Every structure is written in structure tokens, then in C-alpha cells.
Amino acid sequence: MYFLGKYQLGHWVDITVQCTDINGTPSLPVSPPVASIRNSSGTLAYSKEMPILEKEGAAIGTFAARVFLGTGFLAVGYTVQCAFTVGSDTFIEHRSFEIVPGGSTNGMGLGMCFYRRPNANHVVYQVEGGRVLMGRSP
Known about the structure:
By secondary structure, this protein is an all-beta fold. The chain has no helices and eleven strands. It has strands at 2-9, 12-18, 34-39, 44-49, 52-54, 62-68, 77-86, 89-103, 109-116, 121-127, 132-136. It has a five-stranded mixed sheet with strand order 1-8-7-3-4, with no helix packed on it. It has a three-stranded antiparallel sheet with strand order 2-6-5, with no helix packed on it. A three-stranded antiparallel sheet has the order 9-10-11, with no helix packed on it. The model has no long low-confidence stretch (mean pLDDT 89).
């Protein structure tokens, strides 16, 4: 099992898989691999088909998914299962990662605007989770 690292809520996890045949030769699968992420108690947190990165060339059969660690995740360990079929053979590859305490399910700020008003100074900002938030000074 390949360990992807430690992350906090609001971060992105990149999952890649190289599809190979029974001999270990890179090959295109029958359908895109499915990445399923389960927490340490076995509860499914995420499942989706992975888009292809390379259809031809040196990295043939390489697929990747970028997963945002938002509201569906907790600060525990996770196992990623990547399942794909090449020809008539089915393969399953496992990876793992851990979410450590800290971070925010909103993610990091993408853009921010400061403006003054007679009653207070305001900051409006958008976060990776898609929310637009506002804060003000007292």
C-alpha cells in the first residue's frame, strides 16, 4: 500500500494510477478506474471515475483524480481503492492517507477584496470550497 501523506481539511489530495496488464505493461483499461475512499471504520467518503491523463505516449493508461477534503471527511486515516479492468483481468490498487487535526472544510482563500464603509472596514473573500464570506473589523 502506497502512503500519499498527511493532510488537513481544506487541502487537495492527488490520486494517480497507471493501468497495466497482467504482464505489467501500461495499457488502456476497458473503462476508467474508479477511486473509492473509505475512512478507518469502512464508511465510503468518496467514489468517482478517474479522468485520463495520458491516452498515448510514454505514460499510456495514466489516470488521476484530485479530491478536495471538505465536509465529507473527518480527521482520521483513509484508504483509497483504485479498481480497473484491462482485457478480462480486474486489478485493484490501494493507497492511504491521513487527515490530521486542523484546517477548514472551506479551504484556503482564493481572492479577497478590502473596502471601507463609514461603519466599519470590510473584507470579502472566496474560499476553495466555493463559499463567499465577509468579515469586518469592530
